[in-house]
Amino acid sequence: MKTSIISIKTTLVLLLGILLVSCSAEDGMDGATGPQGEQGPPGPQGEQGEASNVNVIASPWIPEEFSNNSVSYTSFTVTDEAFTSEVINSGTVLVYGRDGVNVVPIPVVFSNKTFYAVFPETLGEIIFIARTVDGTPTFFGVFTDFRYVIIPASNTVAKEGQTLDFNKMTYYEVMDHFGLAY
After folding, report:
1. Which N-terminal residues, if any, form the signal peptide (predicted)?
2. Cis peptide bond prior to 60, omega within 30° of 0
3. What is the model's pTM?
């Protein structure tokens, strides 16, 4: 009787062994997908990428259109749909005047003449203004043309996470920063 119990146990072990060895993952259907595991801890913050000129707009040089008469105030308007409320409220707009050789940031005062630009209530426009400081009539032939650079708020952060002050940069530094043509 002892031999028959041992032989039954041995036979069962052998059968189970054969059964386990002969089964493979391809033989049956896949089980249901288990639940999503917990989110791991956040990794380190990556470094700020290089400056990009994505969405930065540099206008062409715009010929000066001030009055040819001796006046104390003159202006001209340029239309550009890029002057949106978002740009005006949170972006940066830099304006430059060129006298044929030198590029000067606007606003600027020369002698008794002041040059600046404003945004009217009508979106999509910029007004270039020249006026005398004391109200006496004069000619405003200082600049031959003007240009503006529109920088959306998303492009004003430096690598260190600080906001860049483009007003402290020269015209050429701004153009080089964004890879724009002079």
Report:
1. 1-25
2. no
3. 0.67
Q: String of b and e for 19-57 (b: at least 16 CB within 10 Å)?
A: eeeeeeeeeeeeeeeeeeeeeeeeeeeeeeeebeeeebb
39 Cα distance to chain centroid = 30
Read off the tokens for 8: 């039954």
Return the domain boundaries, the chain. 61-178
Per-residue pLDDT tens over the stretch 43-57: 555 444 444 556 899
Specify whether the CB–CB gap between 126 and 119 falls below 8 A.
Answer: yes
Q: Please, which residues have CB within 8 angstroms of residue 30's CB and are 6 or more apart in sequence?
A: none
What is the C-alpha separation between 14 and 19, in angstroms, rounded? 8
Tokens 């015209």 — which residue?
A: 171
Alpha-helical runs (H) found in the chain: 2-22, 85-90, 171-178
Flag whether pLDDT at 101 surpasses 70: yes
Identity (one letter) of the amino acid at 34?
Answer: G
